[in-house]
Structures are given as structure tokens and as C-alpha cells.
Amino acid sequence: MNSSPHSDTTTEGIRIHAAAEYLPQEVLPQDFFGDDGSHRRHHVFRYRITMTNQGTAPVRLLSRHWLIVDGEGRREVVRGRGVVGEFPRLGPGETYQYTSFSPLATTWGTMEGSYTFEREGGERFEVAVGRFYLVPTAPPLQLESPSS
């Protein structure tokens, strides 16, 4: 059984590796009040996505879709164009990596989702991002790409 908090999923020749780490030192300027009126703070997680085109044709990322679930079962759906303001094009064998952040109201949660990619001929397809865990015990993110 795999006990890693990360995910590594391949869909239609596009490999997506997702990993996250807890940043206890990060404080967001806006704390908030819970549904019960109690004061809560955000817990910040940094996540790194590495996508590799293991196929034989170029592709371009168009959009993202995330489902983020916190430790109390609250769900947030995030949709948007590109990733971190970019629309990466990946030729065969090429890799693109980015880092972003996710604040949670709890000290743990999960993320999963998909990317929409487009082939040169205009055909669009969905690429899965397997569930990965936002947990304080995750190992720190490494600067290098995961091994193939």
C-alpha cells in the first residue's frame, strides 16, 4: 500500500505529480469566523505540480479544476484558465512545474482535480490530478522533479 501523501497519475500520456507541504509559519492577513461564530485562522499549504508529456504529440494546458476538501468536510471547487497565469505548451518529453498555495480552515485536507489540455488539432481532453493530501506531516517539497 502506498502511504505517500503525494499523487502521481498519468492520463492520455500526461503524467501529473502533485505534492504539498504545510507552512506553519505562514500567516494570512485575514483570519475568519467559522459557521458557529468561532474565530479561526487559515492553515497554509504550498503545493507543487509537475506535469510531463509522455506522449508523442505536443499539448497545451487550457484550464484547471480543483476540488479542495478540508478536515471538516467543507468542499471548495476552484475553476480557472491556465495555471499561475500561464498556459504551458509541452512537447513530447517536456516537463512543466509550478508551485501555488492553498489556505484551509483546518490543519489537514485533500486536493484533487483535473486539467483540460488541447492537442494541436484542437481536440480537448481531461487529465486527472489524483488526490493528494494537505497534511502537516508531509515531507518538505524538493526542488528537483520527481524521478521518472
Task: Quickly list its features.
Immunoglobulin-like, mainly beta, 0% helix, 55% strand
Care to count the β-strands? 11
**Tally of individual helices:** 0
Overall pLDDT level: 88
Q: How would you spell out the order of helices and strands?
A: EEEEEEEEEEE
- Unreliable stretches covering 5 or more consecutive residues: none
CATH homologous group name:
ApaG domain
Termini, distance in Å?
A: 20 Å
Query: What fraction of the residues are assigned to beta strands by DSSP?
Result: over 45%
- Share of residues in helices: under 10%
Please give the domain count: 1
**Oligomeric assembly:** single chain
The name CATH uses for the topology is Immunoglobulin-like
Give the overall silhouette. elongated
Radius of gyration: 16 Å
Described by strand count, sense and barrel closure, the largest sheet is:
5 strands, antiparallel
CATH architectural name: Sandwich
CATH class: Mainly Beta
| Class based on secondary structure composition and strand pairing | mainly beta
Concise account of the structure shown:
The chain has 148 residues and is mainly beta. It has no helices and eleven strands.
SSE layout and pairings?
Elements: E1 7-11, E2 14-22, E3 32-33, E4 39-40, E5 43-53, E6 59-70, E7 75-81, E8 89-90, E9 95-104, E10 109-119, E11 124-134
Antiparallel strand pairs: 1-2, 2-5, 3-4, 5-9, 6-7, 6-8, 6-10, 10-11
Q: Please, could you describe this protein's structure?
A:
The protein has 148 residues and is mainly beta. The protein has one domain (7-132): Immunoglobulin-like. The chain is 0% helix and 55% strand. The chain is built from no helices and eleven strands. The chain has strands at 7-11, 14-22, 32-33, 39-40, 43-53, 59-70, 75-81, 89-90, 95-104, 109-119, 124-134. A hairpin with a 5-residue loop joins β3 (32-33) and β4 (39-40). It is elongated and about 45 Å long.
